[in-house]
Amino acid sequence: MAGNPGEVVQAYFDAWNTRDEAKLRGTLAPEVHFVGALGSAEGVEACVKGLVNGMWKVSPRVTVVRRFVDGDDVLTWFEIQPFGGDAVPVANWSHVEHGRITRIRVTFDPRPILAKQ
User: Fold this and answer.
1) Which of 90, 36, 83, 85 is nearest to 63 (CA)?
2) CA 68 to chain CA mean position, Å
3) Could you tell me the sign of the dihedral formed by the alpha carbons of 91, 94, 99, 100, in that order?
4) Integer distance in angstroms from the first to the last C-alpha of the chain?
5) Which residue among 9, 47, 56, 90 is least packed, with the fewest CB closer than 10 Å?
6) Where are the alpha helices (DSSP H) in the chain?
């Protein structure tokens, strides 16, 4: 995937909203490392699997509220709506190198999701 870091991260969230696994893979570096409130993943296949089998089922769409770009780092403030419930604010910090996301850190209050499982 070519593009500046903001465009790459935008494509990542576009892939989430359209549930496009191929596009999602195209935004992630082979060695991508993910750490979030509900788990972690190493490598593109593990990250895609975690999103497809996890968060896409909990919240198939996200609403991006703001995005901040600082060089190769992109902070996206967005909302998920787990199980159609109230919006949960989420912060996603992505690091982009050579047109692909290499590192993702996500933080949010997981209680609304855990309470519904």
Assistant:
1) 90
2) 15
3) negative
4) 35
5) 56
6) 5-18, 21-27, 44-50, 56-58, 111-116
Q: Which two tokens mark 54? A: 């996890």
Q: Which two tokens stand for residue 9?
A: 């991260």
Tokens standing for residue 76: 């996206």
Q: Which domains does the chain have, with CATH numbers?
A: 5-116 (3.10.450.50)
Q: What is the per-residue pLDDT across 19-55, written as a single tens digit (0 to 9) for each?
A: 999 999 999 999 999 999 999 999 999 999 999 998 8
Q: Which of 23, 29, 55, 54 is nearest to 43 (CA)?
A: 29
Residue 93 structure tokens? 């910090």
pLDDT at residue 71, rounded to an integer? 98
Secondary element (H or E) of residue 105: strand 100-107
- Taking the C-alpha atoms of residue 117 and residue 110, their distance in angstroms, rounded to an integer, is 11
Pair 65, 79: CB distance under 8 Å: yes
